[in-house]
Amino acid sequence: MSKPIIQIAILGQPLPDFDPRELATWRSKAFVVKPEIESFQLDDHAKGNDWEFTDDQFEAGVRRDPTCAFLIIFVKVKLENNWYLRRLSDNRVVFTFYEMDQIVRFHGLPLKNLALRVLYAAVLIYRRYGERIPPASEITSYAHDETRGCLFDMNANKVDVVHSLHRPCVCDQCCSLLKQAKVSNELLAVVQSELHRVQKPLIDRLTGFVREHTLVSIGISILSALALGVVASLIASLIYENWLTAT
Length: 247
Ligand SMILES: [Zn+2]
What we know:
Layout: E1 5-11, H1 21-24, E2 32-33, E3 38-40, H2 55-59, E4 70-75, E5 85-87, E6 92-96, H3 100-106, H4 111-128, H5 172-180, H6 185-195, H7 202-212, H8 214-246
Parallel strand pairs: 1-2, 1-3, 1-4, 4-6
Antiparallel strand pairs: 5-6
Helix pairs in contact: 7-8
The structure holds zinc ion.
């Protein structure tokens, strides 16, 4: 299974808690991220009527490296129609953290999960449409309005994105449509498997477990304390016996 090479670029001010180099070190059988991640200055003022940056402004911006399958440009400014992702020409997409970053941070999730969600969705779109990212002018139907924790949730209400940032999935309907579009079973299996690694930080998972299984957690704490006490007693006895033998 060949892996498309994804080019990543940062346009404008970077976010302090998003390190795009983490994407380049993410192990995947579905894609490769080009290790050189470049950042560019965002010069223009927003030209939209509601202070949003238009697709045309990005069209003239960062160019795709022809050795890469597609380019994902990360920004933090408002996009057309206040969408969080816009498809451009020449296999390029622009994704914004505008408003999304606050939602994700509020729920204690890393921005990296959001970026990975974009990467996996883009890979499947690229495969589905015959090794290309359809431009915004082309009508597509890969997203669904219902929130299912799926890569292709529309998230018209941006808050809903949190449902697909901890072990997201590709729902049954999307799997079926992707298979009809000749996306291989193997690629879908790889993506589903790797999406299990996109999850909350360990501390948040532990907190969630304690909240959901309070009695079990108390039991584990008591047993752990008892076990520690027994081990400490054994160690103390050994030290004492060795001391007696030595004297
Ligand atoms: Zn779906």
